[in-house]
């Protein structure tokens, strides 16, 4: 079973990203869970969301404690949360930042651990494409590319379908989100 943990702040779309990824992964015929863990529900409060995907029915119904992949929408959470908690040495942490992976590795206190750290500036990408700082969809593109979760065309079609449903009647939002996803998909590979 593959497990993914999302860290963000209220309003950044961690829950939505987990759900969109779950829907995309479901197109493969696998069993999927996507769910948030709530604390104080307010804009800016820490939020955690999870995905599980498996070839077998998933009988676990608890938070993800040993994620293979962690997606961080806001690096300032590192001051209060151990973002690498439970990540195995062959895992990966993907962070929304303009900083280099080596600098993020120091921030996360990962020296000596072989966890892969990747970065993509989803804030910048979302400002360019969405005209607002909503890093969730760019981070989806970066995660799918970095973790090789789905073939590109299958992922992009699933995202277009899901976003068209979510933003029914607002095709400009679908296209802006697709542009953000595609840009981050390309940029994470350059790091």
Automatic annotation (TrEMBL):
Pfam families: POR. Keywords: Oxidoreductase. SUPFAM superfamilies: Pyruvate-ferredoxin oxidoreductase, PFOR, domain III. Residues 10-186 form the Pyruvate/ketoisovalerate oxidoreductase catalytic domain. This is 2-oxoacid:acceptor oxidoreductase family protein. The keyword Oxidoreductase applies. InterPro entries: Oxidoreductase_gamma_subunit (IPR051626), PorC_KorC (IPR011894), Pyrv/ketoisovalerate_OxRed_cat (IPR019752), Pyrv_flavodox_OxRed_cen (IPR002869). NCBIfam families: PorC_KorC. It comes from the Bacteria. The keyword Signal does not apply.
């Amino acid at each position: 079973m593959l497990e993914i943990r999302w860290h963000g702040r209220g309003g950044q779309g961690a829950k939505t990203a987990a759900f969109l990824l779950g829907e995309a992964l479901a197109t493969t015929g696998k069993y999927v869970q996507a769910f948030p863990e709530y604390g104080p529900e307010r804009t800016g409060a820490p939020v955690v969301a999870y995905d599980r995907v498996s070839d077998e029915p998933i009988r676990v119904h608890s938070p993800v404690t040993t994620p293979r992949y962690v997606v961080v929408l806001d690096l300032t959470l590192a001051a209060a949360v151990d973002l690498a908690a439970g990540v195995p040495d062959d895992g990966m942490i993907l962070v929304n930042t303009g900083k280099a992976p080596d600098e993020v590795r120091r921030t996360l206190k990962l020296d000596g651990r072989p966890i892969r750290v990747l970065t993509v500036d989803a804030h910048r990408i979302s400002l360019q494409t969405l005209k607002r700082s909503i890093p969730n969809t760019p981070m989806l593109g970066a995660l799918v590319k970095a973790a090789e979760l789905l073939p590109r065309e299958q992922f992009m079609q699933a995202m277009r379908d899901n976003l068209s449903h979510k933003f029914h009647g607002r095709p400009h939002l679908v296209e802006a989100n697709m542009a953000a996803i595609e840009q981050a998909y390309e940029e994470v590979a350059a790091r």
